[in-house]
Design a protein that fits this description.
mainly beta; 4-stranded antiparallel beta sheet
Length: 362
């Protein structure tokens, strides 16, 4: 195991050096410093003390200092000191509900999504760091079940529900989550028999930029990626070669721009065996290819760190790629559900038993 970790660390040093040379402009180096590629890099997760034991599938990283997590029992936590301490800022009226996604804009503004049938699917918004919350959407459709949410900017966002009357349902906001409108059925994509999205990490629906977003699915015979280029007004579906089934498919996506993306998944019922569960593209959803060198295990979260460097997590471990998802290298065996990385090489992970961690690169 030690030999394996040393090999991964050497790869990490090489990967950082390549990224430094290829993707970071000289004038940006002082504002967004990289760890020195001097052979001393130690890659791993540093656990923080949250003080709770619930499961955090919702995660939003703002910076190396600020992050939000949301999870079971209606729990929302916030840190503003890099995980040194966590504040419990849970909405009192959401007690007992299941948060599965949270999108934070800074240390004060965040939008959180609870899941469940009928009125258990809700959206809560705060503008004062969680001191108060407003319930801005409560699902009234008995057959709807919301899974994920994404924001293009601080005002425009979308959330999705599993199919209603044969079509995937979307709601949209143009005011930071304060009000929502349901996308007309005729503008929503038709669902395949048995198709749905996985509310495993808040990453079944992700925004790539100010206009493009991607929804990934499973459950049906074919796992699909469904794309919008106009903030959710219209959608186009693309089949993938990722293995799909009643509990299998694509669980999470990450896009660093409209073209470059990574898809991860598998089957949560067989976490140590996930054939054909990883894919990548440099040409949008039409250019997807299966990863020939993948972890081979179920993964529920993925995030780009810088350039082609990305991290994926799941219940059996964490892996890193230096080539945009073509190949992967294990660096941790702990359990996590979601991962979110932002500028400045800040990367957070969250999961079961109150686990929240920061990626250590030096």
């Amino acid at each position: 195991m030690q030999r394996h970790l040393k090999s991964v660390r050497r790869l990490a040093v090489l990967g950082m050096a390549l990224i430094m040379a290829a993707t970071i402009a000289p004038q940006a180096a002082s504002a967004d410093p990289l760890p020195k590629a001097d052979g001393r890099l130690d890659l791993g997760w540093e656990l923080t003390e949250t003080g709770v034991t619930g499961q955090f599938r919702g995660l939003s990283a703002v910076s190396g200092k600020v992050a939000w997590v949301a999870g079971s029992g209606g729990t929302v936590l916030r840190t503003v000191d890099g995980g040194g301490s966590w504040q419990n800022v849970s909405p009192p009226e959401a007690a007992g509900l299941e948060f599965r996604d949270i999108e934070a804009f800074d240390s004060r503004r965040a939008v959180a999504l609870t899941i469940g049938p009928a009125d258990e699917s809700r959206v809560y918004v705060t503008g004062d760091g969680g001191a108060s919350w407003t319930n801005t959407f409560t699902n009234a459709e008995p057959t709807a079940f919301y899974d994920c949410m994404a924001f293009f900017d601080t005002r425009h966002g979308i959330a999705m529900s599993d199919p209603v009357d044969g079509r995937i349902r979307f709601i949209r906001t143009a005011d930071g989550g304060r009000t929502w409108s349901i996308l007309p059925a005729e503008q929503s994509p038709e669902a395949l028999p048995g198709e749905f999205a996985f509310a495993a990490s808040g990453q079944c629906l992700v925004a790539a930029d100010k206009h493009n977003a991607y929804l990934v699915t499973g459950g049906a015979e074919t796992a699909r990626i469904i794309h919008t280029g106009d903030r959710g007004a219209t959608w186009t579906a693309h089949d993938t070669a990722v293995t799909s089934g009643p509990s299998a498919g694509i669980y999470a996506a990450a896009f660093r721009d409209a073209g470059h993306g990574i898809l991860v998944g598998g089957d949560y019922t067989t976490p140590t065996s996930a054939p054909d569960a990883f894919a990548y593209t440099g040409k949008g959803p039409g250019g997807l290819k299966l990863s020939a060198d993948s972890p081979g295990e179920y993964r529920s979260g993925v995030s780009f760190l810088a350039g082609p460097l990305a991290v994926t997590v799941g219940p059996t471990g964490s892996d890193i790629t230096f080539d945009g998802g073509r190949s992967w290298h294990r660096f941790d065996d702990g359990a996590f559900d979601s991962v979110d990385c932002v500028h400045g090489f800040a990367c957070w992970a969250s999961g079961p038993k109150g686990r929240v961690a920061k990626l250590s690169l030096g």
